[in-house]
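Q: Is it fine to ask for two folds in a single conversation?
A: Yes, each is treated on its own. Send the first.
Q: Here.
A: Result:
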Amino acid sequence: MNKRILIADDDVQILEYYRNIFEQDDSLDFLASRSIEDSLVLHTFPDGEQLVDFFLSEYERKERIPLCLLDMRMTKMDGLTAAEKIRAVDPEVMIVIITAYTDVSPTEMRKRLHDNIYYIKKPFDEDELYSLVNSLLKNWNIRQALLESEANYRRLLEQSNEGILTVDRQANITFVNKTMARIVGYAPEELKGIYFFDIMDSEHANLVRNKISRRVKGLSERYGLELIHKNGAAVCVMLSASPMYTGNGAFSGSFCVVTDVTESKQAFEALRTAKEETDIANQCLQETMEQSRQLAVKAEIANAAKSEFLANMSHEIRTPMNGILGFLELLQKEEGLTNRQYQYISTALASGETLLQLINDILDFSKIEAGKMEITVTELNLISLVEEVTEFFKSQGQLKGIELSCRIGSELPAALRGDPVRLRQVLVNLLGNAVKFTEEGKITLSVSLEEETERTALLRFEVQDTGVGIAPDALSRIFTAFAQEDGSTTRQYGGTGLGLAIVSQLVPMMGGKIEVESTQGKGSTFRFTARLEKSDYRAAAASRPLPTLPHVMEEEEDRKPFSSFRILLVEDNPVNQTLSAAMLEYFGCNADVADDGLEALEKVATNQYDLILMDCQMPRMDGYEATEAIRKQEADAGTSGEARHTPIIALTAHALEGDREICLMAGMDDYLSKPFKADELNSILSRWLNPVQKKGVTPIQNQK
């Protein structure tokens, strides 16, 4: 990976400051994510002229520089002039202008450098600059790899001795190689974009239409066809066509391999020896089809690798986040903290929660792109859900002096079924944006009945605010991933622009659509619909079990409600091991710790536990294998009359659709996703451990 950076600034101390940022030693920081392999290569210069000279000399040696950081005002040559000179040589070089003051506006900079520029004003945040530089370097290297891969693929097609063309589902030609163009006497640019049927007569056009209809069904075929040469002559070809698909599996067109058999056909009609030539052509076509099949297999493998990467990314990010948020939460509960210490911890905890929300947004967006997001249908209390979401944002609104209210139509059906998690996610995103972009006035969430059938109800949700509004030219891209109105929006209000992109994908999955109306400076109204199932209210109420009344405990039991239980914690990560043990100690549990599945089996064989917290990914033996072995031990013991079922709770940093089901199928009883809070762990303990039952008289089997 090319990680070379050129930096120009006429202040020697500033240059040293840059080196401290990009070459700092994080070896003593146990949470540091930088490594030697990720180190950057810096070249610093006291003025723009020297930087340009070095850049040009490296470019002549075919040594490319991905990124330049330029101070705006320097002696000899300012940063913008230097940027123009190196861009004239290599248009793909990334430019970051860093300055405290400049006579040239950012708009003029982008105009002179054709928009591809980043502008940072001094003083700047070190971590933000470090993250920006790493992101730009990664993007530059990925782009170079993609360009090289695309060039190799196109060379392969262009150098093929067979004619290659692709057509879209409307039979418009989207690509031809030189061999194909030569077969019909045209230049490649003359064929691209024309109707495929324009180079054949009506009889053969009907034949091809019939073949395309079979291709839509997934059939690949090889057949003879007669095309019309540019000079009007007939050209006999053998065409091998295979279907092409979009990323979501929809038919997008045909990939065709064309062999000119005009001379072969003439020779066959004149001499019977043409059979040998036909066999040779058939062999070539079979090889081409095999190559196409192999490409399809590779594409399938790549798609599986993408899903695996998504799961691993979830695990690797959530594991350290569990330690950060968990220890901050425990530290916040410590007695004797000063107000300043408590404020520092609260700020760090809030920042961690924001980062976790960003991670969840990215994972949700990735799941939607990969087609792994699913909508579940279950009983939901719509009124309670809407009121809870509104109440959640009321405190934020009150801090800004904003009036936040909700209006729920009386005509709504009494009982509904849908996906409360995804509906809540949409409302939280829209209300969160409204609070973020409103400085004064009010925000109103309204729910009404749009239309009703015997089985479903189409509900309309409106979030109306008196905020900054959206510019007309930005409305068309407001639901695009990573898009905000402009760069100043991100700087002033924060955010990635992923929330509305996720909302725009979730709403259609719930059978609705979303739209926005906005007047800049006066406010916005986001409006969406969702189709929910209607359910019989009485039947639904009758099917729900009566709630269990909480047990009244003594004051000491309220503080340490689980002191009579013995827990086995199976966790290989030292940070998460310490965190989980500390949380269990906080709740009064007696906890043993095992580093992996094998050690867990040894402890289960010699001790009796009330509950096991089982990490899923561990060395030597993972949580799935350990659970299977424990369940086998319990089954063997049951045959001799010592039946026992110890609740096993999965601890996993995976958070993708289906991960919970995988854990339950492996024999686990419940699922706790990292990072988890103390309240979430307490909820799990309360669900599976009954202090009154432990003290007492009549044991009751735990149920989910």
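Q: Second one now.
A: Result:
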Amino acid sequence: MRKIELHPIEFEDHTAPKLGFLGVDRYCLLRLAAALLSFIIGLFFAAGSMAQMFFMLAAFLCAAYDVVMKSVEEISSRHSLTMDPLVLLASLAAFVVRLEVDGAALMLLFRVCTLALDYAVKRSEENLEKAVDRRGTAVRVVTETGETQLDPEAVHPGDTVILSAGEVAAVDCLVLEGSAAVDLSAVTGSSFAGSAGEGDAVPAGARLLSGELRAEAVGPASVSLFSRIWALSRSDGDGKAAVEQWAELYRRFFAPVALALAAVVAVLLCVIGHCSVSSAIHRALCILIVVNPAGLLAALAVTAHTGIAGALSRGVLFKSISSVEKAGSAAAAVLDKNGTVTTGKYRVEAVRSGKLDSEILLKAAAHAAANADMPMARAVVDAYAGDVDYSVIGNFVEFPDGLSVEIDGIPVLLGSRAFLESHGIQLPDGDGSDEILLHLTLAGQFAGTLVLSEQPRSSVNETVDALHAMGCTDIVLLSEDSTEKTHSLSRLCGIEKYYSNCTAEAKLGRLKELQERSGKRAALYVGAGECDTDCLREADLAVILGGPDSPCAKDADVLLLSDDLRGLPEAIHSAALTRNVFLQGAGVVLGVKLLLILLAVFGISSQLWFDMLLDGCVGIAAVLNAVRAFPARK
């Protein structure tokens, strides 16, 4: 089973206790109920009467309490003004021009729409976490008296947990006894299944397909790998997306711009449209209400979160909205060879023997390499079809580029040309090729050579085709190997462009060249393990294969949790879907706002409460529409 690092980390609990109905403060509900009751009573009195004015004013004051407090705080702290001061101003202006019903209804609807929008955003976030969270809901823990079931948050580090076939781990744990087939698709997003045995890590969300495990809990669910990944997906990240910057400008300047626009419209309606002052002010107040950005900003936040959560369910972790935006406009992908395009494993392609039979040479090499840890040595053992007799192996010593061993008392050396020459062995002259070679000597005499090749990932060709289909015009392979090796690997992977003999400085230079060619679209750098941090920081979007504990994870914008290159087109697809869903929702919201502005200017519809109600409903609809950015799990 692929090893997964589990490092417990403490998280602060920011969950506030729910008060009242749907998480709304009970005193706020009482104020709104009083405002609604006063408003309804006021409707039974004659329009314009003092009695109606009294009840409408009471409704306004009850509903406006929270708005007044927030407006005072914003003005006193010199923060950017939100919609609250503008609605307060519009409501008061409606009372001044004797439109008290409109003014009271506006304030009451504003509070209701604001609370409904907040609730929609909150529920969307909760539903997203539930959709992504595949952890179990209970833990079987061994106690002195037997077994008991605990809430995942009640588990302590060191508790002994029992997992059986069909169960899903609720907490991270380390296997003490037993073996099982484990499905990690809920953790990595890909259909990855493997076996878990003693010493292996089983993260929360892993499902046992068969077998039974006795494991030690790392800690409660709140410190699990999933909790760390979810918290990382909800972090702000570094830098802001362009859409976030526009939203920030809108939030910062919309209040003065809206006031100026409303004033200009009022003046023009009086001068050019020959409207009365009260009618012009009424229409201008409608415009002041319609420019409310709350629904649009809420839709942006929820769309981004749903898009990130949808990608996370497919094994792609975006750290910020900015990374989603850049992935959606990817024009080029730079693939660093080590660990990204290749698996780090080798395969024996040919056996070149001298006087010995090739099968005997491979048998001798397999026995020599049987106890080695080097990937190339393991490839030699895998290539040998027979069984290794460990009883004839002795005096084994492994070096960085070779090994020394005795097989049935005969001294054997296996390694690179430099390794054998350092031991005084004279080898035949090289043929100038750039093959990966392991040379073998028996009793100090050269016996033959094994030709190896580095294995590319099986998913590389599929990934390259998918990237081309998604509009990535440049896919480039960067390698520290020579031209011959790099050319051979790129041909196997279906990559047309490559650069060989790349030092760290050369890789950075090639990346900058590609960024210039990409223009305003993003150039992605994809690495794995301990790749070049300078390239990660310079790239428009830095992608790492691996989880949050990968060596370079902190410098990456996107993590492919499945450690599979096929997650890259998944990331681009999720980002493009998120962008399209937001643009569609924003287009509808802005279209409705424009329509309401035109209706108000021409006096076709100039009811403050109607504009607030329709604008609020459209904002909530945009938030609910954002769930379409959560793609179906494969």
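Q: Anything structural to flag on that second result?
A: Two points. The chain has a mean pLDDT of 83. Residues 115 and 559 are 35 Å apart (CA to CA).
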